[in-house]
Amino acid sequence: MSLDKFIGIERKIDNTIPSVFINILGGNATGKSGIVGRIKQKYDNKVIALGKYSRSKTSIGLLTGGMDMYGSTQIQRFSYIKRHFLSNKQVLLCEGFIVVFYESFLSKYYELQKIKHRTVYAILLHADLDVLQKRLFKRSKGKEFTTKRLKNLNSKASSANASYNKLIETDTYKKTKFDTSDPKIFDEVVNYISEIIDGVLLE
Questions:
Q1: How far, in Å, CA of 70 to CA of 143, rounded?
Q2: Other C-beta atoms within 10 Å of 127: how many?
Q3: Please, where are the H alpha helices in the chain?
Q4: 4 occurs within a structural domain
Q5: In a domain, 8, yes or no
Q6: Quick one: DSSP state of residue 124?
Q7: Per-residue pLDDT tens for 51-70?
């Protein structure tokens, strides 16, 4: 199924409309989809969350998903992101689908900003390894935590941190990070994103 089916694109770019692109990145089980779910619930159709989401089977009230659920190639994924980025939608929110190739995706946003004047917010979520292991253990309903799974968990967390640290912050490309080891921090992340969204929608 073509990703174009899910895309609503304006033909004319309007740079007078204040707009943002909020990109949540991080390794597995850092809380990315849960944050997206809460923002979607709060703002409904005022926020466009890129990707495909469904109800989590292990975390009541939360969502799981992202671009991975489309099973698309990296080229298709970036095409999907680009079309939305260049649209006149005010608030775009995405997460997780840049896990494999995120450094390239994040760096390309600088180029897209030259065409569409959209402020980018890169938000890194990270947590202690033992906390991530417990979350994944619960998510997989007690499935054995193998050496391979642990290596994958470490790899994605390290790569997300490295990619985030390489980003150059500008007036229109902001970055911040949150340690989500304590679940209470999720409220802080939601409040931070809400302030960004409210600021755009009220202009």
A1: 25
A2: 23
A3: 32-43, 74-85, 102-113, 129-139, 147-166, 185-201
A4: no
A5: no
A6: E
A7: 766 565 545 445 555 555 45
Query: At residue 52, what are phi and psi to the nearest 5 degrees?
Result: -125, 130
Q: DSSP code of 41?
A: H
Single out the residue of 17, 15, 26, 21 nearest to residue 160, CA to CA.
26
Q: What is the DSSP letter of 44?
A: G
Counting runs of H as helices and runs of E as strands, what totals does the chain give?
6, 7
Please state, in angstroms and rounded to a whole number, the distance separating the CA atoms of residues 142 and 19: 42
Question: How confident is the model over 163-193, as pLDDT tens digits?
Answer: 889 899 999 999 999 999 999 999 999 999 9
For the stretch 16-51, pLDDT in tens is 999 999 999 998 899 998 898 899 889 999 999 987
Q: How far is CA 76 from CA 12, 36, 72, in A?
A: 22, 22, 6
Please provide the size of the chain in residues. Answer: 203
Structure tokens at 201: 């929608």
Backbone angles phi, psi at 181, to 5 degrees: -60, -40
Domain of residue 139, CATH code: 3.40.50.300
**Domain residue limits at 35:** 15-197
pTM (2 d.p.): 0.85
